[in-house]
Specification:
single chain, 499 residues, mainly beta, Immunoglobulin-like, 5 domains, 5-stranded mixed sheet
């Protein structure tokens, strides 16, 4: 007899599929169960996916995300999370209408599905926010509530605010002719209607929230006038080029001005213009801490608030950081000098551009009697204090154009004008004769550092200096008299260089 093996699908839980073989199937049948994932089983779309509505009637669409439509029988849709009092209705993926209940706020829509085998899905939900209150706390200000503008093109800055606003509409017309909704923002560069020339100009605005609720219309006015003050000027610190202080004095003058606005690096301050008898008004101004060229501008405004477009401007260089300590060396870094008059050369190395510096030099740490001189990287002749020999120090500091003074740089050199003292000089321990030409020279010399050795005193100037040693072995002498194997020699003192 032929035995057929086949599989019958059985739905044992909503969204879980099991397959089981019948009794007459082979004995090795198996059951496979696929567990549901954590993803939603039901798609619930409200008003085409909108998050807000200002209407109680909404449109709902239901779609099963896990079970084929042909296997579904019915569904429940309601506002109660348990759906206990909601009747089953035929499953449909067509849009249908629901009427929201209650006051404004989050409105939850709950849905449950049932398949043809009677399996019921978990209850799932989606929400929409029911909102019928338009934006409020409305604000519209033109040019920060200035009363006048003198911009010939009618350009103004409009400040807008409205709670819960999502879009806005702005216009020069109360009827909002040709105006369109645009994304909400709190600042808009706007052009007022200048067709009629000077006079009072109005700007209108209204707002809309995400639910589509429109606010009432608000407006503000500004007066257009275009004749600014003339003859404006400004000087800083009476025309000085540099300052070491952040605090400077501005001297400002203009004709017909009643107010001034001082601006520097994004900081602006307004002052009532109250000039002295000389027509100038002094303003104490604090620069920012960043060093460099500081430009300060002044705009002038008359009683009608007409403002100059081109400011009066002045600049000053703020420099409060002194130059770096200069590197100073004496005689190219030599440690000793035997200059009889104490004259040495100086080498100065600044980190800054030397064109903008001055120099002070002194033999005293307090720079007693020192004066400023033009900066130079080399001073070929500097006079040390020569009262006594010993360690000499030269001090240097540099001054920039703003008058900032560097820390003191210094260099040292030992002034030694006393020749080494020769106490003794012998050949082979005062031997009068020697065998061979190699001898040992023995010296006892105070304050010796280098020495020149020669068998001829007339050639010492041309002999290379070498390190002084108390004993100079293996010196080769020249024969003065040959008698068998003995040599007669004379003692010659070396020229010694001091340390």
């Amino acid at each position: 007899m032929l035995r057929l093996a086949y599989i019958i699908p059985v739905f044992i839980a909503f969204g879980v599929r099991a397959e089981i073989c019948p009794v007459n199937a082979p004995s090795h049948f198996s059951v496979s169960i696929s567990a549901p994932s954590s993803l939603p089983l039901i798609g619930i779309r409200i008003n085409g996916g909108a998050k807000f509505t200002n209407q109680k009637e909404i449109e709902v669409e239901i779609k099963s995300l896990r079970t084929e439509k042909a296997l579904l029988e019915s569904m429940k849709v309601g506002f109660d999370p348990t759906l206990q009092n909601v009747q089953w209705q035929p499953y449909s993926e067509s849009a249908f209408k629901l009427l929201l209940t209650g006051d404004e706020g989050d409105k939850m829509i709950y849905v449950q599905l049932k398949d043809k085998a009677g399996n019921e899905s978990p209850v799932e939900s989606n929400k929409i926010i029911y909102d019928t209150t338009p934006p409020d706390n409305l604000l519209l200000k033109i040019n920060n509530d200035e009363k006048y503008t003198n911009d010939k093109l009618g350009r103004v800055l409009v400040e807008l605010k409205a709670d819960e606003a999502h879009e806005l509409m702005i216009s020069n017309s109360a009827q909002f002719a040709n105006a369109k909704w645009e994304p909400y923002k709190e600042s808009i560069k706007w052009v007022i209607d200048v067709g009629a020339g000077d006079g009072e100009k109005s700007v209108f605005a209204k707002f809309k929230d995400m639910a589509g609720n429109e606010s009432k219309v608000i407006s503000d006015v500004i007066y257009m006038d275009v004749t600014p003050p003339v003859g404006g000027s400004i000087t800083i610190n009476d025309g000085a080029k540099y300052t070491r202080s952040k605090n400077v004095k501005l001297s400002i003058s203009a004709n017909d001005a009643t107010m001034i606005r001082v601006v520097s690096r994004g900081i602006g301050k307004n002052y009532d213009f109250i000039p002295k008898a000389n027509g100038q008004m002094d303003v104490n101004w604090e620069l920012d801490t960043l060093e460099g060229i500081k430009s300060i501008k002044v705009y002038f405004m008359d009683e009608a608030k007409n403002t100059t477009k081109v400011p009066a401007e002045a600049s000053i260089i703020y420099s409060a950081t002194p130059p770096d300590r200069p590197a100073l060396s004496i005689n190219q870094g030599q440690k000793y000098t035997n200059s009889q008059n104490g004259s040495v050369s100086l080498q100065i190395s600044p980190k800054e551009s030397p064109q903008n510096l001055k120099l002070m030099l002194s033999n005293h740490p307090n720079f007693e009697g020192a004066t400023q001189r033009a900066f130079a990287t080399a001073v070929p002749s500097w006079q040390l204090d020569v009262d006594t020999d010993g360690l000499k120090t030269v001090y240097a500091r540099i001054i920039d154009l703003a008058g900032n003074i560097s820390d003191v740089g210094k260099a040292e050199i030992f002034l030694d004008r006393t020749a080494p003292k020769v106490n003794s000089f012998t050949i082979d321990n005062n031997a009068r004769h020697c065998i061979g030409l190699k001898v040992t020279l023995t010296c006892d010399i105070d304050d010796a550092f280098e020495a020149q050795y020669s068998n001829n005193p007339n050639t010492l100037k041309n002999i290379k200096w070498e390190k002084y040693l108390a004993q100079r072995p293996d010196w080769t002498i020249l024969p003065m008299m040959e008698k068998k194997s003995f040599m007669h020699v004379s003692e010659t003192k070396p020229e010694i260089r001091p340390k």
